[in-house]
Amino acid sequence: MTNPLRTFASLYSTTLLTVLAGGLLTTYLGLKLSAMQVPQIWIGAMMSAYYAGLVAGSKIGHRLIARVGHIRAFVASAGIVTASALGHALVDDLSIWIVLRLLVGLGMMCQYMVLESWLNEQADNSQRGTVFASYMIVSYLALILGQGAISLYPDLGLEPLLLIAICFALCIVPIALTRRIHPAPLVPAPLNVTHFFKKAPQALTTVAIGSMIVGSFYGLAPAYASNLGLDPQQVASFMTATIAAGLLAQWPMGKLSDRMSRSRLIRTNCLLLGVLTLGIAITPYQPTVALVMTFLFGILGFTLYPLATALANSRVEQSERVGLSATILLTFGLGACIGPLIASTLMQWLGNSMLYGFMSACTLVLFAGLNYINARQKAEEPSTNDYIMATGDLVSSPLAAALDPRVDIESVQEQMTPTAGDDIADANAYIDEDDYVDEGDSADNDISDNDEPTGDIDNATDQPDAFINEQDFIAEPEPAMVQEKAPPANRGTSTETEPEEVQPDDSAESNWTAGPKSKS
User: Fold this and answer.
1) pLDDT score for 430
2) Is residue 509 within 8 Å of 472, Cβ to Cβ?
3) Which residue spans traverse the membrane (predicted)?
4) What are the distances in angstroms from CA 321 to CA 136, 191, 198, 199?
């Protein structure tokens, strides 16, 4: 049996480069716009556009993958993201920059969907928890490295954009060179927002308001620190300390959430975070004090989301957790779109400190809302093992539900694996013969599954497995060609020949399955 860690190494490398470049681009733009002395609302609008792109990408990504396959979808998305990042060096029009941020968000979400589809395909059921946790850790480390990289270029010239473009370009290499079979396409998890808000109102309210806080921090904290007079190296330290605190807090907060009521823990977290952010807003800047306070902010602010998801999962049935995951991600994305716009407007009108003033107000509203909901909701049933590590930012797609160890594999196969009817409908809607049959493939199409290979193919078994893989080199027969084949003898006495299903191709590889795909 093939060791799945080989595939994980390449996928984690791709994840590291992708998230690093995305984090570096966000910090660079915040500092650059602050140095250009543009109104704060423009900085907030660009971060909101990025999250809007992530939300839109979750709807567009699965269609793109269904049409052209995983590798082509990833390469196309990486190309769009790279070009969009470099576009900031060509134009100074801020309205165009907003469009570029939207495209970056859209493309990166498509990349996340490809990565998570591949991880889900290669992970054994017993490894899903380890694979998912490792994916989150790699994402956290990439965010930290992205913040630190800005300190290498204090002049904020073109060099950071070139480094971002290099990372986005190199992230294609591990995916493009993989010899693994393409993963089966997954469909987005079903959405039923109203239903889940009724079943887990505290959790989804926490996700909605918590995402406003986190989105505002990622989008506006670099500009906030720059306006305090910090140079890029100090801004990098400020951001790195916050994100590192969020990473270090995951394990102890998970243990704590298994020992006490999660709803009470979220309210306590919220109250402490409100006091802390209010203190940051009104306290004069002192370098050491600021680092300590932002470290504490990372502990409290970046654990709200995983605590809320753990609480939400404890409130629903196992069969509903796939749809819950999609609802949580949509709620997070929408909240992260709104938060930076409000915070940047307040910063422009009332001053730089209103970034944390806005966060303090959010925690006050959240605390009051949670107390109101808790008074009307039935008592929480104790549960364990529902806390799963999560980054403070949105670095996963709705397809991450397939990796979430809290979701049983049967629910994933039932709700996220396309049926035979879905395959045919998607194929008819998105695939034309010209999309997956080239003139150069005609020789391959002469070889069907029932034919004996001839000529040089006979010697294929003498070649090393690393270079010869039948699925890598032999495409499925073109539908137009298989119509003339004689029906197999085991079809009984019927004189009618059932038409074969159209199997869309991805780079001359078959990556579609008819019916739910079982996982080993």
Assistant:
1) 43
2) yes
3) 7-29, 41-61, 73-91, 97-119, 131-150, 162-182, 203-223, 235-253, 265-283, 289-312, 324-343, 355-373
4) 19, 11, 14, 12
Where are the domains positioned within the chain? 5-416
The owner of tokens 């999309």 is 435
- The type of residue at 367 is F
In angstroms, rounded to a whole number, what is the distance separating the alpha carbons of residues 339 and 344? Answer: 8
pLDDT of residue 174: 85
Handedness of CA 61, 62, 63, 65 (dihedral sign): positive
120 to 10, 182, 184, 462, 486: CA distances (angstroms): 14, 11, 10, 32, 38
The stretches of 88-200 forming alpha helices (DSSP H) are 94-122, 128-149, 159-170, 172-176, 193-199
- Check the CA dihedral 233-239-242-245 and report its sign: negative
According to the model, what pLDDT value does residue 100 have? 96
One-letter-per-residue 3-state SS of 427-493: HHHHCCHHHHCCHHHHHHHCCCCCCCCCHHHHHHHHCCCCCCCHHHHCCCCCHHHHCCCCCCHHHCC
Instruction: Report pLDDT digits (tens) over 12-30.
Output: 899 999 999 999 999 999 9
User: DSSP string spanning 251-280?
Assistant: HHHHHHHTTS-HHHHHHHHHHHHHHHHHHH
- How far is it, in rounded angstroms, from Cα 86 to Cα 415? 39
Nearest one of 38, 24, 43 to 159, comparing CA atoms:
24
C-alpha distance across the termini of the chain, in Å: 11
pTM here?
0.71
Q: Where are the beta strands (DSSP E) in 13-56?
A: none
Which tokens is 413 given? 């196969």
Instruction: Identify the band that residue 465 occupies on the pLDDT scale cut at 50, 70 and 90.
Output: very low
User: Would you state the pLDDT for residue 396?
Assistant: 53
Per CATH, domain 5-416 is 3.40.50.300:
no
> pLDDT tier at 443 (50, 70, 90 boundaries)?
very low
User: Burial, 363: exposed, middle or buried (Cβ in 10 Å; 0-12, 13-18, 19+)?
Assistant: buried
Any idea which residue has 């100090």 for tokens?
Answer: 234
The SS3 assignment for 93 reads coil
